[in-house]
Specification:
CATH class: Mainly Alpha
Shape: globular
Number of strands: 0
CATH superfamily: 23S rRNA-intervening sequence
CATH topology: de novo design (two linked rop proteins)
Structural class: mainly alpha
Helix content: over 70%
Length: 125
């Protein structure tokens, strides 16, 4: 990214956790595209909505003035990450994703939850 592009970045786009959430979402889309059509409409849509909620709530929360409001949005983002992990567990149990994909998603999800928890904790100090 050049200097000019950097000048047009929003504050939330500079957060490492936001960038990781976008990477995570890209991985979720890959899984979604491999699902059977009928599962895309049931599990898949919920999976993508939860993934979008992670990055969207990080973006929205970063723009809030009060710590309480920020924490609420970050909390929703944390909940959405956990929701994705639950769905990943189901997809593995039902043999709809392979073990490698499962482990990659869990690793990213764990890192995201740790980083969001850190953001929330920093607001409480």
């Amino acid at each position: 990214m050049n200097r000019e592009e950097e000048d047009f970045k929003f504050d939330f786009e500079k957060l490492e956790v936001y960038q990781l959430a976008l990477e995570f979402l890209s991985e979720l889309f890959k899984v979604y595209r491999r699902l059977l059509r009928d599962l895309q409409y049931s599990i898949g849509n919920n999976f993508i909505r939860a993934g979008l909620s992670i990055s969207n709530n990080l973006a929205e929360g970063s723009g809030k003035k009060s710590k309480k409001e920020k924490a609420r949005y970050y909390g929703t983002s944390l909940d959405s990450t956990r929701e994705c992990i639950s769905m990943i567990n189901v997809l593995l149990r039902e043999k709809l994703i392979d073990k490698e994909t499962y482990l990659i998603l869990r690793q990213k999800g764990k890192r995201i939850t740790s980083m969001i928890s850190g953001l929330i904790n920093s607001l409480e100090e």
